[in-house]
Amino acid sequence: MNNRLTLYSILSAAIVIFTVPFAMRLNIVTDMTSLLPEGKNFQTARTINRFPVMNRIVAMIEFARPVKSDSEDLITIDRFSAEVGAIDGVKSARNGVTPDEKQKLARFFFMRRFYLAPYSPETVDQNLAITRGRMTLPRSGEMRKALAMDPVGLSNSFISRIKYSNGGSIDLFENRFFSKDAKKAFIFIQPEFTQFDIDSGQRVINSIRQKFKNVKSGFTKGARLRLTGGPVIASDSARIMKSDVRLALVITLAGLVILFFVTLRNFRLLLLFIPPVVVGALSGMAFVWLTLGKIHALTLGFGIALVGLSVDYLLHIIVSASFHKNFRVALKEVFPSIALGFASTAMALGALSISSFPIIKELSVLGLAGLAAAFLVSVTLCPEIAYRLDIKPRLPRKLLLPAKSPHVITILFFIAATLFFGFYALKGKYEGDIKRLNAYSPNVKEDLRAIRKVLRREGGDRYFVITSAPSEEEGLQRCERLIENLTKSGLVYQAPCQTLPSKKWQMANIDSFAQLNVGQFKAKLDKFGFNPAAFDPFFQTMADTAEGRIAPVTLETFPPSSLEAAIEGSSYKTGEGWNLLTFVYSKSPEPVTGAVNNSGEGQVFFHIDRVSESLALFIGEELPKLLLACATLILIALYIFFRSIKLALLALLPPAVSLVWLVGALSYFEYHINVVALCCVIFQLGIGLDYAIYVIRGETSGQEPGISHMAVRLSAITTVISFCALLLAKSPAIFIIGLTICLGVLAAMFCSRILIYFPLGLALLVGAAGCHYHRPVTPLPQSQVTDRVEFPAIISVSDGETKNVFNAAIGLDREGFSVNLSKGPGIPYLKIFRNQTTRKTECLKPSRLCHHIGWLLTGAIKKGYYREITDPSYETGKVEMEKGTITYRPAPKEAGAYWKVARMTYKKWKYTLVITRLKSAPIPRLDPSYKQLGN
């Protein structure tokens, strides 16, 4: 026994030492697509974010007036772009197309013009006429030479293929990317990391803003930098979420400290809450790292709010210790209740592990590990420390009063509220739009809207089509089939295969020139007035291309340019093959879907609205599955503990009704059930179940009546404080966590209070346990409890014998009944006679027996019916109650002592009589005559 504290301390220290290294390695992510479950549509959403183009940063510099050709702003833009490109972590920064880049691209494509356009005999005469007209214009020698090398317009054919029919949202002004009004310059920045590398993203974004400050003096007055893109939004969202979590942690800890200081009034008791909070937090984060390797910021928000739950177990022990003045005795009394509460919560969290949502699995691991560690420390180390330090909790007596039976008005309100929220719960909807969960600061949101307004392409909303194939060549061929169908549908698109055709398509173009008869073609040249010898370079390039001396267009042969960056941004390679991304612009998804379906295999259509619809349906399927799994596991645990299906169902009733209240309240306030609210709804089920268990256990186990009610009140307050802090969050997702849990906890506390004492709940409780609740007896003035003894007893016939207990209990005679406290010699003998005016049937039911005994004892003691008798003729102390009169007769060796019969409860055909001995000296002597009840 003396080594108990040492053992518990070593165990707690070992947990901390083991978990700290793992908890410190935990990576916090904010990717909203990581909330999505497994599935084709949801996997596509995650795949899209892997394309480099989706991780691009767009910088827009706004000017008050249009930039002129000779403006210094152009030079400053070039300087700023060069400095941004030199930032560590930036792969490229392009603000336009330089003349040198233009020449390289023109030379590259011109040399491969036979690969990029097919020969069309039908258009030869038309193209030769166009070439003839251009040569008659006053042109330079270089232009005439270029026309002579491409008399059939192959270059024009390829240019028409790659031209984006988007209305020209961005123009090249002085070789730089500008808006049409020349007031906005653009720089496209490609990072070396993904948008979910929050630390790198924040560092690069800060560097870009600092570079702009350094060169801002070179711009005309009023120049402003706007940034948007995946890394900008992700970094801003992560910053807001982390700020919300830190704020919630500070508010939670401050609120709990104030609450405990006001209620407990003992600084040493406050220190007892540190071990379960610290050990629980470290254990939860460590096990998340060991099993998942990362944690979402939303899950971490849950974890911060779990601080309020991790102190509940110790809180119950402290409330009990305020009665017993001994932490070991208090732990022994409430351990079954808190153990069952933890088991039920563990069952609920364990059921969440079957969910298809990653965030729910994270919550399951975090909650199980954290609460298990907090529970272990709360029932081992903390009570032992308090016992050794002889800490005596002193809770305000007003808080320790048990709840009264609900008033009829309260019951009517409860029924009306249940019907009201039930109606709105049926109207509740599921929501799958994860974009609404993103957190935006006002500046980032304003920049996003401003840049989107300029870059928005004509044709409608933007849709995505992912083309997957085992090889690059196969992927390009599938992409070409796609754009062929998109062109037939009249849709605007942007695809990598426009500038990077497949080898099959290029070789088909080469083969088409087999139709070209050189002699006939030269005759046509002569007919149009050309000198055929001037076109020898054309025929020589055609021969070199056909014989393979000129390599086809591939990504490896592409010169470094903005075009190459665009192709690389829309493609990436995995171990399974290549993925190509095509942007399609349409006013409705139906034409895009039709084109994709006609393009064969390897095409996946994606739009955020389609994902939102699928996610909403998935949530609707997931919620009943998780609720059924939780309810089944919990019901099994409750039945094993209570050994009564009635009590198990009664414990499930309050959280079930509170769940209806919660869903109805969310629907009434126009908050739909999304993936975050789904976590909260399941989590709230476990919290509400804990409250019901504590109340039922307190009513059926012989605890002091105020313990369970006070503990439930404080537990609800601590949980509300923890999650109310999340209501101040700027992040919509974290705000929904706080709102849902707060509403759920308040509903669970109220429903637990009403339904346990509601006639239906009371009937189940009395029928299952045979007990009835009574207000505790107030100690006599200036008295102090010196010892407390509990006597298990059994119902017997009036002569005190214990034969045929069951039959005797239901076959009482008209004279009355007795309870034999058979714990050995010297134990009081209680004999109670029924009032002659009471009907027989009232005494034949176990619930009525308990009711009468408790009412007589409690009512008599409340009114001060005590009598001190020192007659030595009695060998044992007795309490006699006859026709409403109660008298206690102490044994000779206990003469002069006063006893208080606290209450009697009933369980499994056995009564428990709780008797407390009081010091006799300070107690005033009462009237020695018999007192009658009722006056």
From TrEMBL:
Subcellular location: Cell membrane
Topological relation to the membrane, as annotated: Multi-pass membrane protein
Membrane transport protein MMPL domain segment(s): 173-386
Main location: membrane
GO terms assigned for molecular function: transmembrane transporter activity
Gene Ontology CC terms: plasma membrane
Keywords: Cell membrane, Membrane, Transmembrane, Transmembrane helix
This protein's name: Membrane transport protein MMPL domain-containing protein
Annotated organism of origin: hydrothermal vent metagenome
